[in-house]
């Protein structure tokens, strides 16, 4: 296996560095790419995070995968990239310095914008060696995502069985987004499970544990997990969501008494209240349909039009 002009032999582990651009101070920025090959042949799996620089929960999950030695496979190869958007990670922002969202510029260009160049190099140097990807994300702007996997309906036959093995609380069917990493991988025949959990600029221990334990179950399925590593099997049923709806604030104000993420609510039930700061108004936000709350905006101040809840519409249990 040859990646970034480095040869990784069976049984070897190497940390390579993808260097594309520097800071404006001329300081070099290197993206660590951690590669471990077993002596026995097998699939190559990529665990990636940090496409958005402020989504720290995903970074923490891949960090734990490496720290716990889960990236040293019994067979096959595991590639870990804990932080892809190193610029955003340094600045604690979602975007690149050019203001672009890396997860909307794939496949990118060798001579394009800074974000586009990163996208191009990831697809050119890493993805051709990969059979399967789990990409870890978190919610943005104070919006807390319940731990969930997202797959496209077109990938149902291949990815739903793997999602059931990972077994998060929720599996959400969502369409491919033009310019996304997931869409670019799909066009190259590389399937991806997209994990969402937690919120930006925050690390939630429960979300991280679900991400790590789900990863263990997937590696065990591929016979890549070493025998000495213990795996927890979730007993709770996974909720499969085929449709969902975003609920937006109809007015600005202070939001309080929100229901907890993951809660099942009935149509007409109170989700939260929005009040003015002077004690005159206190407006109830009602559930438009029965379903599971899979995202909650936990910001105390909201503006008219802000996304405040993500609610399932049609769901089944597995």
TrEMBL record:
CDD domains: M14_ASTE_ASPA-like. This is Ectoine utilization protein EutE. PANTHER family: BLL3975 PROTEIN (PTHR37326), SUCCINYLGLUTAMATE DESUCCINYLASE_ASPARTOACYLASE FAMILY PROTEIN (PTHR37326:SF2). InterPro entries: AstE_AspA_cat (IPR055438), N-alpha-Ac-DABA-like (IPR043795), N-alpha-Ac-DABA_deacetylase (IPR053138). Transmembrane segments: none annotated. It comes from Myroides odoratus. Residues 41-221 form the Succinylglutamate desuccinylase/Aspartoacylase catalytic domain. Keywords: Hydrolase, Metal-binding, Zinc. Its cofactor is Zn(2+). The lineage of its organism: Bacteria, Pseudomonadati, Bacteroidota, Flavobacteriia, Flavobacteriales. Pfam families: AstE_AspA_cat (PF24827). SUPFAM superfamilies: Zn-dependent exopeptidases (SSF53187). GO terms for molecular function: hydrolase activity, acting on carbon-nitrogen (but not peptide) bonds, in linear amides; hydrolase activity, acting on ester bonds; metal ion binding.
């Amino acid at each position: 296996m040859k990646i970034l002009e480095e040869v990784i032999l069976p049984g070897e582990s190497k940390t390579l560095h993808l260097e594309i651009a520097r800071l404006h101070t001329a300081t070099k920025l290197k993206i660590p790419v951690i590669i471990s090959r077993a002596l026995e042949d097998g699939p190559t799996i990529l665990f990636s995070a940090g496409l958005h620089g402020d989504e720290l929960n995903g970074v923490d999950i891949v960090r734990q995968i490496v720290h716990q030695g889960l990236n040293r496979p019994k067979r096959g190869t595991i590639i870990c990239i804990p932080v892809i958007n190193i610029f955003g990670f340094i600045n604690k922002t979602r975007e690149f310095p050019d203001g672009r969202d890396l997860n909307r510029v794939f496949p990118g260009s060798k001579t394009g914008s800074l974000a586009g160049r990163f996208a191009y190099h990831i697809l050119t140097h890493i993805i051709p060696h990969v059979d399967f990807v789990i990409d870890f994300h978190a919610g943005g702007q104070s919006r807390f995502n319940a731990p969930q996997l997202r797959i496209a309906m077109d990938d149902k036959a291949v990815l739903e069985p793997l999602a059931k093995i990972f077994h998060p609380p929720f599996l959400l069917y969502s369409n491919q987004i033009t310019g996304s990493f997931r869409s670019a991988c799909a066009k190259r025949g590389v399937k991806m499970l997209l994990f969402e959990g937690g919120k930006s600029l925050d690390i939630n221990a429960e979300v991280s544990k679900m991400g790590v334990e789900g990863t263990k179950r997937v590696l065990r399925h591929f016979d890549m997990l070493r025998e000495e590593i213990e795996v927890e099997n979730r007993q709770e049923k996974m909720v499969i969501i085929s449709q969902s709806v975003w609920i937006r604030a109809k007015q600005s104000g202070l939001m309080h008494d929100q229901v907890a993420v993951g809660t099942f609510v009935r149509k007409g039930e109170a989700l939260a209240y929005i009040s003015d700061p002077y004690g005159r108004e206190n407006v109830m936000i009602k559930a438009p349909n029965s379903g599971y709350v899979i995202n909650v905006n936990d910001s105390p101040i909201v503006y008219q039009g802000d996304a405040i809840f993500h609610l399932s519409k049609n769901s089944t249990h597995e």
